[in-house]
Amino acid sequence: MKKFPLAFALLWLFGATAFAQTGERYRFDNFDFKDGVRVASAPDSPEFAPETKSLTAKTSKRNAVNARTSNLGYSRARVPMSASKSLDGFTTGDPRIDAFIVESGVRNGVDPVLIYALMHQESSFKRGAISPKGARGLMQLMPGTAARFGVTNIFDPRQNIEGGTRYLRFLLDAFDGDIALTLAGYNAGEGAVLKYGRRVPPYRETQEYVRRITQRYALMRDPETARTAKPVTPTEVAAAQAQPTVPLNIYERNVFAVRLPDGRLQLVTQ
């Protein structure tokens, strides 16, 4: 009888520890770093070396199915990536940035529409954007990530977009083209995706990040979007773009496309 309280206490402690591990809250974004260098997913990192080597090889059908059956309810069939060679009528508002997105997408085999959707979430097309954690530019690269993918001037739009697109290409190859896992890797690091069994990590910010960008991507790929886009004036677009970005720990409700006076489309949030 005297042993029962001790056994009960140990059982309770084990359960509490397991809950804390599975319900942990992520405190960093896609650029976990130490001394300015991203460490969560470096290809030659000893911690992830075995997994990273396997990323470049083709996985079995079983692994591919597991990678597409995450702990979240993302319907990836709705947003299959196709290698487009344009932004399909969308614009960032800057023809040069639009051209850089398309160039990098075509060069690296990444759909420019996906790059656009990610950029809209990351920086709202502000080339000088800097996050509180130090992510910079249109694609919000950390210095370590930028260096990893050949960027020497992180605020140069062309280099920033090319570096971010190369990282997307790496992640798409790593996760067999699975867009949700690719986005999770961009936000939390591919190491985190591997840690949780090639699933979207259970971090609230990462889950919301993946949801938002897949929503944007599906919206841009929907043929009905162009038909139903509301015409707006330049003043209305400027007012919408001036709205602060909704933090990732808050559910973002409204994202839609509008038609600019020149006939092109643009994503806005409200």
Summarize the structure.
This protein has 270 residues and is mostly helical.
Strands ordered across the widest β-sheet: 3-4-5
Number of distinct helices: 12
Largest sheet: number of strands, sense, barrel closure: 3 strands, mixed
CATH class assignment = Mainly Alpha
* Number of E-state strands: 5
Residues in helices, as a percent range:
40-55%
Per the principal axes of the C-alpha atoms, what is the gross shape? globular
Which spans have pLDDT < 50 for at least 5 consecutive residues?
A: 1-79
How many distinct domains?
A: 1
Q: Within the CATH hierarchy, at the fold level, what is the topology?
A: Lysozyme
Which structural class should the secondary elements be placed in?
Answer: mainly alpha
CATH-defined architecture: Orthogonal Bundle
Keyword list:
single chain, 270 residues, mainly alpha, Lysozyme, three-stranded mixed beta sheet, two-stranded antiparallel sheet, 49% helix, globular, disordered N terminus
